[in-house]
Amino acid sequence: YTITLVPSGASAAQYESTTVSVSVISSAAPKPAPVLTDAKFSNSGGSLVVSFSSATNQASITDQSFACSQLLTFSGDSAATCSWVNGASVRAVLAPSDVTAEAARTNVASLRTVLATSDVSVGSSLALKANLVTAECAAGQDCSGYSAAAQQSISVAAPDAAVVPVVLLTTPAVVSSCDDIIIDASMSTGSGGRAWSSVVWTISKSDALGAVAVPAVLAALNSRGVNIATPIVLVRGVNIATPIVLERDLFAPSKYTLTLTLTNFLGESSSATVIFAMDENPNLPIVSILGPAERSLTPVDTFNLYTTTTQASCAEKASTISYKWTVLENGAPFTKPSFSATPNKFSLLPYSLIVGSVYTFLFEATASATANTDAITGRSTATVKIVSGAVVVAVVGGNNRQVPTVGQLSLDASPSYDE
Q1: CB 51 within 8 A of CB 157
Q2: 129-148: per-residue pLDDT in tens?
Q3: Do the beta carbons of residue 350 and residue 302 sit within 8 Å?
Q4: How far is residue 256 from each of residues 231, 245, 377, measured CA to CA in Å?
Q5: For residues 77 and 271, what is the distance between their CA atoms, to the nearest angstrom?
């Protein structure tokens, strides 16, 4: 029989029709051997899901988890850990190439967070080993006549919704021309559990002619290859463990635009851009609000913004620093004060912020004037959007209980709350 699914209705154009063939056999006939039909990456890229055409005997493997090499052949199979999801599909959790098969089997949970360096990729070959898998045998049936599946191969497919990189790129907004520039992309996520397939930098500086390329800076950034796990320090000849040295003329006062594009092994890409400037004043405070520049919270969350403030290595000791916070609620002044005792931290109690509102927090650190220099301010901003929280249902006594058939039943859900 041929069965065709044809979508209809107002949204039919969003779907495709599909056809499957179904063979009906006698209940007395042996079931045919299952066929390997699909091998696909999970959306995170950390595992594979391998599917069969019908329920199997699970290759007579009774262990909850086992080395994938017992059943399958693919790059890194001996260190990958397999487990049956159901009778017709098995999940293979990929492991780093330097992890032994035994270590992989005994520490599956932690391996989910370890960077996987298996060579298996979209389009790689995955094979089922011969004479292991038969059709599922129902209890009480004689399945001795069931034939085992022959060796067969399939190409590994891309996930349905591959993880997309989230590029977090930070630099101080303004840097003194006598100090280092720290470019940090180490908090970026979405690599799919492997090294980035591609790391592409672009940088330009502004002058009277507009945006001008900065090839020396670009070369220094590219010298790191795909390793962005630690911050990059661009220095002026300072002797550090692994310096990236820029020519002195690049540190003339100017505004720089830096863009980073990351691509994971599943082919998904994303970019982020930062703009920073260099200033001749040696007392310039280098200010940063820790964490992403944009974030979302629910009203129930206790709100804390932490900051760091440092001064350039050539700062004058006579200059002192003062701090100031400015907060806007949907563009208008926000008057609730921080309850933090320290001026470089902003804290609010739960339910201080309103759902649907967008708050802009500006943190300023001002270095006082000296006999040689004017006062100068370093700034950093963070944008916070307040989103609806969950409605949490709480019933006194728990959600499941045993009660007598006689007498009064009291249900109290008063502890329920709206986040």
Answers
A1: no
A2: 999 999 998 888 888 889 99
A3: yes
A4: 18, 17, 19
A5: 33
Distances from the Cα of 419 to the Cα of 54, 155, 211, 356, 389, angstroms: 45, 46, 47, 14, 4
Asked if residue 333 lies in contact with residue 284, where contact means CB atoms within 8 angstroms, the answer is no
Per-residue confidence (pLDDT) for residue 307, from 0 to 100: 94
Contacts 24+ apart (CB under 8 A), 204-213: 204/256, 204/257, 205/250, 205/254, 205/255, 205/256, 205/257, 206/254, 206/255, 206/256, 206/257, 207/254, 211/257
- Using CB atoms within 10 A of its CB, is residue 124 exposed (0-12), middle (13-18) or buried (19+)? middle
Hey, which of 5-14, 105-114, 166-175, 220-229 has the most confident mean pLDDT? 5-14
Contact 315, 368 (CB under 8 A): no
Tokens 């089997």 correspond to what residue?
Answer: 105
Structure token digits, residue 327: 């907060």
Residues 179, 279 contacting (CB under 8 angstroms): no
Q: What is the mean pLDDT of residues 214-238?
A: 68
More confident residue, 25 or 40: 40
